[in-house]
Amino acid sequence: MSESGDASHEALARVVREHAGRLAASLVSLLGDFSTAEDLVQDAIETALRRWPAEGVPDRPDAWLFTVARRRGLDLLRRESTYRAKLDRLTWPAPAVPDDRLRLIFTCCHPALSRSAQIALTLRVVCGLSTAQIAAAFVVGEATVAQRITRAKRKIGEAGIPFRLPPPRELPARLGEVLAVIYLLFNEGYLSSTPERAQARDLVDDAEWLAALLANQVPKEPEAAGLLALIRLHRARGAARFDAAGRLVLLADQDRGRWDRQAIEEATALLVRAARSRRRPGPYQLQAAIVACHAEAADFESTDWAQILVLYDMLLHLAPSPVTRLHRAVALRYTKGAAAALAELDDLDEPLARYPLLHATRAELLRALGRRDEARRADEQALALTANPAQQALLAERLDWT
Amino acid sequence: MKYVLMFVETEAFAKELEAMSALELEAAYDAVGRWFAEHSDKITHHTRLDPMHTATTVRLGGGEPVVTDGPFVEGKEVVSGFAEIEVADLDEALKMVSTWPACPLLEIRPFS
């Protein structure tokens, strides 16, 4: 046993994440069957999660996982002589396997799969989460997740979804699918909309890890670096987002001394490098630039709102969305005033009727304009719409003292 | 892998066709012809169906067969033709249909 015998939950997650995807990628290449390879890897991971907490993490977790997967495969595939023969010949490390995880990611995020299937498959196959862990992270039943994964794997096999990198011409569009999956994972973890877990740490770790893997493997795509910078900039301020009682603290009220300045500088440098070397702006780079503007301000009053407004305009030009318009309206409040910002919200009533932040923002603006009763009603609407306990507490508190 | 491409016409597309002049219609047909020629090495068979007013639907299983006029889906999207193709994988099929010049909806389904 190595010193990594520290088999805490996080250490286990880290080890599994580092090795599960590699093993899956090499087995898919070697066996030529996505579903079979995935079953074997999942089996090995479940064995590891059962045994490592007691026995400690082995010195060579990759070799351990491989051995279990191979033994299991020889056992299971007794009747399927072709796979058996292939497995029989395998040794670890498999013959000079390059890092095939990029191919794995593109297969899991193939546009012919539904978004929910893309997410579940990526978490399971690339990050090595078990079905139970995915179910817990998204607060859905295990049977639902298992069925989603089974269906997706069948579709990959039967519809002929290839295990291959998209050709350069198709790469930007296919990369967009992957980035969307990672971004959703991050959001789910960071702004988790489910009760009892204001911050689900695991998904945020997984999202950052995936973004780093991707940015490293497609260094010529600035949007991959942009997403990584965006995630890191958010995380650098994570410690200040909640107070000691677990209540959400708004940006204006956050203790900026608790922000990780070094992480902010590094993420900003990453963003600037990507943006300057490629000069191809995109939604993730722009969102990261907006977060960087906030992160660089010494205090809320010195925020460069004019710059943020310009960035939102660029973002809306590239990727129009009502949620982005809502955020832009907030920036407008600090450049043109609360009345101008409030007027912007009128058009958003229809598309964002069920979006709690629209009502919370309206409440803030109304309160700034001294229209207290209307503000209160907007806060009540927001409260009725959010399931996030931290957001609920914040809104309830505001209702208490207004 | 073998796939069937199902070409689906929508109401909007049918209206577009109706509004075309003879010359425009000819150009549209030419574009379709060029697409088939371009991919002829991958297309093993293709069929264009006659207009949907010629369709007859039969429902079985409830005693006497029930025969009705028209296509089986009472929607605004109707299958108007098929092509069988043989390509390496779904990505190749997707690439092929990305340049399809006519109706705006396609279903790709493997068959063995």
Automatic annotation (TrEMBL), chain A:
- The domain of life for this entry's organism is Bacteria
Domain (RNA polymerase sigma-70 region) ranges: 16-81
The alphabetical list of record keywords is: Sigma factor, Transcription, Transcription regulation
Gene Ontology molecular function, alphabetical: DNA binding; sigma factor activity
Question: RNA polymerase sigma factor 70 region 4 type domain location, by residue?
Answer: 105-156
Q: Which Gene3D superfamilies match?
A: 1.10.1740.10, Winged helix-like DNA-binding domain superfamily/Winged helix DNA-binding domain (1.10.10.10)
Residue span, DUF6596 domain: 174-275
Supply one GO BP term. Answer: DNA-templated transcription initiation
Q: Which Pfam families match?
A: DUF6596, Sigma70_r2, Sigma70_r4_2
Q: Which family does it belong to?
A: Belongs to the sigma-70 factor family. ECF subfamily.
**What is the protein named?**
RNA polymerase sigma-70 factor, ECF subfamily
UniProtKB/TrEMBL annotation, chain B:
Q: Which domain of life is it from?
A: Bacteria
Q: Which Pfam families match?
A: YCII (PF03795)
Q: Which residues form the YCII-related domain?
A: 1-102
Similarity remark: Belongs to the YciI family.
Listed name of the protein: Uncharacterized conserved protein
